[in-house]
């Protein structure tokens, strides 16, 4: 006998609830409705649900809080957020918090809503580990090599979900993390996939050349313009434009980009008539644009136009679980090296790869492995095949933290050592209790270090992160998730 599918609709508009009852009852699903957050909680306590359609704005609460409550009570339940256009950015935040997807009201195409519901219910049927395995395999097919526990998984999952939304995307991350690859992935998963994808590096052109490249020019509009030329906004019409290093665009270019994003219109250089374009813009930067806005180096209005969705690609040093997979991938798959399938990376070599900070990220690792394969004998990649900068690295116990030798830290370490000594003196020991006490001591040490670093930096998180030789992302993790 086929299992009954339970769907919960949470919306303060009676018409919306009735619409889904009519739509889904006909498909054999059991539909429950709630008009407030309180009613929703009562429904969750009565039965389990496979899918919840939740309005982002309710009289007594908001959809993000309801999303958290649903996931806390029934983690297997998929959630689709319903939103008006003015709250799309918040709906994207909901996906980051665990929502399956969002749909805009009023519903333009009922078939699109039905397809979204069917896809969400299929997701519910899959076990969590099966989902991640499928995701890893799919990403590998698209050129992303990562493990199931990689922080990249969530980001690319979000990228896939927003691919079919006509939203601008801002991709942030250090040089070499693969921002253009992520942009191409979004394009490939979007309805624009059969149309052009064109990448432009804003830092590679002067202002006049970039303007001509993007918007085209008329004959005689400047010296050397012997004929009219189409710009990328015309050539890539219907497709995707990837603007790399957007932070280096001049103020004049920023103004023109803002007009295109707001109205879909642009004026060719030397032209007198505005032209229209239907193009999706994905921008990328290795610099924090928010800081550029604060220092008046980047237009605030353009920044908010670009960042409908922000994807922060983590550096390789925060993806340690991916390094071995990537190293073998580059060693075996580099097309210009005639690489061998029997390549073996020695354990000591892997240890050096794990300890290296990878300032050039994935691109640097690819170059290192290309060198290693060339120098390897009989397919064995030893430490001798690595560059000197990796071989000669010295991992200090407390890099960048000379103040850790202070009296307070000595007391912390003494406390940590005492936990071990107490348990050694009282064998047999409760290992669970020992683990708990050691974790408490560990978090106490980290908390003291973070507090001290922030105090010395007068609350400046970037400066504090530099003192601790970590990224601001790692610092935010300890501040937000570790308290």
From TrEMBL:
GO biological process assignments: phosphorelay signal transduction system; regulation of DNA-templated transcription
Organism: Desulforamulus aeronauticus DSM 10349
Name of a matching Pfam family: Sigma54_activat
Every Sigma-54 factor interaction domain range: 145-374
Protein name stated in the entry: Stage 0 sporulation protein A homolog
Response regulatory domain span: 6-120
A Gene Ontology molecular function term of the record: DNA binding
Top-level division of the source organism's lineage: Bacteria
Record's function text: May play the central regulatory role in sporulation. It may be an element of the effector pathway responsible for the activation of sporulation genes in response to nutritional stress. Spo0A may act in concert with spo0H (a sigma factor) to control the expression of some genes that are critical to the sporulation process.
Residue positions where 4-aspartylphosphate is found in the record: 55
Keyword set, alphabetical order: ATP-binding, DNA-binding, Nucleotide-binding, Phosphoprotein, Transcription, Transcription regulation
CDD domains to which the protein is assigned, alphabetical: AAA (cd00009)
């Amino acid at each position: 006998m086929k299992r009954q599918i339970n769907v919960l609709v949470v919306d303060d508009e009676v018409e919306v609830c009735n619409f889904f009852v009519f739509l889904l009852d006909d498909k054999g699903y059991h539909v429950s409705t709630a008009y407030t957050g309180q009613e929703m909680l009562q429904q969750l306590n009565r039965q389990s649900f496979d899918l919840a359609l939740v309005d982002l704005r309710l009289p007594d609460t908001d959809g993000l809080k309801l999303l958290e409550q649903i996931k806390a009570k029934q983690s297997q339940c998929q959630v689709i957020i319903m939103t008006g256009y003015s709250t799309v950015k918040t709906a994207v935040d909901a996906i980051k918090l665990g929502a399956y997807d969002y749909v805009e009201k009023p519903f333009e195409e009922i078939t699109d809503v039905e397809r979204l519901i069917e896809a969400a219910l299929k997701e519910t049927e899959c076990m969590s580990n099966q989902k991640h395995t499928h995701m890893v395999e799919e990403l590998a097919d698209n050129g992303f090599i990562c493990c199931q526990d990689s922080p990249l998984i969530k980001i690319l999952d979000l990228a896939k979900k927003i691919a079919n939304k006509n939203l601008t995307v801002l991709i942030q991350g250090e040089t070499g993390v693969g921002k253009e690859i992520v942009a191409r992935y979004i394009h490939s998963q979007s309805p624009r996939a059969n149309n052009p994808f064109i990448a432009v590096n804003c830092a590679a052109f002067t202002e006049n050349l970039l303007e001509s490249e993007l918007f085209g020019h008329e004959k005689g509009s400047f010296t050397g313009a012997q004929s009219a030329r189409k710009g990328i906004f015309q050539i890539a019409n219907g497709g995707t434009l990837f603007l790399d290093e957007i932070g280096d665009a001049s103020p004049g270019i920023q103004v023109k980009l803002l007009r295109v994003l707001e109205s879909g219109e642009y004026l060719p250089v030397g032209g007198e008539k505005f032209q229209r374009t239907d193009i999706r813009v994905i921008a990328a930067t290795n610099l924090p644009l928010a800081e550029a806005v604060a220092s008046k180096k980047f237009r605030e209005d353009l920044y908010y136009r670009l960042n409908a969705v922000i994807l922060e690609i983590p550096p390789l040093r925060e993806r340690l679980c991916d390094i071995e997979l990537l190293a073998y991938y580059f060693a075996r798959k580099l097309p210009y090296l005639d690489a061998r399938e029997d390549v073996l990376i020695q354990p000591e070599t892997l240890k050096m790869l794990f300890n290296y900070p990878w300032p050039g990220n994935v691109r640097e690792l690819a170059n290192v492995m290309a060198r290693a394969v060339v120098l390897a004998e009989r397919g064995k990649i030893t430490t001798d095949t690595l560059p000197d900068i990796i071989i000669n690295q010295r991992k200090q116990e407390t890099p960048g933290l000379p103040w850790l030798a202070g009296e307070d830290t000595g007391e912390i370490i003494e406390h940590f050592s005492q936990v071990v000594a107490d348990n050694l003196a009282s064998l047999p020991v409760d290992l669970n209790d020992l683990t708990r006490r050691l974790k408490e001591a560990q978090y106490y040490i980290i908390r003291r270090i973070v507090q001290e670093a922030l105090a010395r930096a007068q609350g400046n998180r970037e400066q504090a992160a530099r003192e601790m030789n970590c990224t601001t992302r790692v610092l935010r993790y300890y501040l937000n998730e570790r308290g």
